[in-house]
Amino acid sequence: MNLKIAVLSGDGIGPEVVLQAKKALYAISVMFDHEFIFEDALIGAVAIDKAGVALPEQTLNLCLNTDAVLLGTVGDGNPKHDNNPDAQKRPSQAVLKLRKELGLFANKRPIRTYSTLMHSSPLKREIIEGTDFIVFRELTGGIYFSDKTLNEAKTKASDVCEYSEEEITRITHLAFKSAQKRRNKVTMVDKANVLETSRLWRNVVQKVAHDYPDVELNFLFVDTAAMQLVLNPKQFDVILTENLFGDILSDEASAITGSIGLLASASFGTTKALFEPIHKSFPQAKDKNIANPIASIVSAAMLLEHFGLTEEAKLVHEAIEKAIEYNVVTIDLNPGTSFGTNEVGEFVSNFILNKDDLLYFNNDNVHIGQSTIV
User: What is the pTM of this model?
Assistant: First the structure.
């Protein structure tokens, strides 16, 4: 398969972690005789500094004319960019505009635990063991894309939350189809006891559910869902929700795994798709070789899955699990580690290339930092 991939490394640790994802994809291309062409472009704070806008037209045009987008992180921690509510140009604007222009209306975020990392979670093993669910978040509607007002005195503001039946229907179908490939359960999260938009969501989701009689549908208010995520996360299979609730709940869910550096997401439209780690830009760690690249590598695996390359994606996941098993991880997972961002990426890519050469993966050598592959 030939794929043209737009690479938007962005700010902070973005370039470092995306580089490791590219290494994994290159190793896959070698092993399976694919051709992946990477084209780099600016986004975020670095784009504001170099091109005057967070999402330059050149970047947007590239994304519109490639098969997929591999995104790093945006935001550099600079007060003039990130922490100034009056700033006219902010890195986050690039992500919102990119979603809108590419028509990325659905965000898919898998949440799963690794058996060897359960000690890193703030929750007890018996609570999280076996957790494996997906959050489907609507991405281009709701309060984030609403009409916004602020009076002249800056003492009163409003954000309108608005949804249409069409916006709800299209992501609901994706959630139910995903559930059919998993455990046939969808949990719709809303605030229907208060919000009119949530009542519309319930009505539309129930209507769509008739097309999927094999899938169990239930509902939770968002406050209850937030509580259940930490009390009993194993109960969930597919969570379906709107933009704001999905943003909050998916970040909460990421804490279950013990590190936000493990999780990635995919954003889909009718024709385009974007893949990214869910963590922030962490500018304090920039160029220190300490950032966890696993989430970015997982996003590369999700890219492969999107294009039907399931065997290839499975091999990437296997490489990640092997790195975790051998404790080839960064300091967020093991404070005493001798490995960094680049070493984890090298381990994963070399496992893909040399999976059956056990001499490369001598457990004792890896643990003391003597493996020939890092």
Answer: 0.87
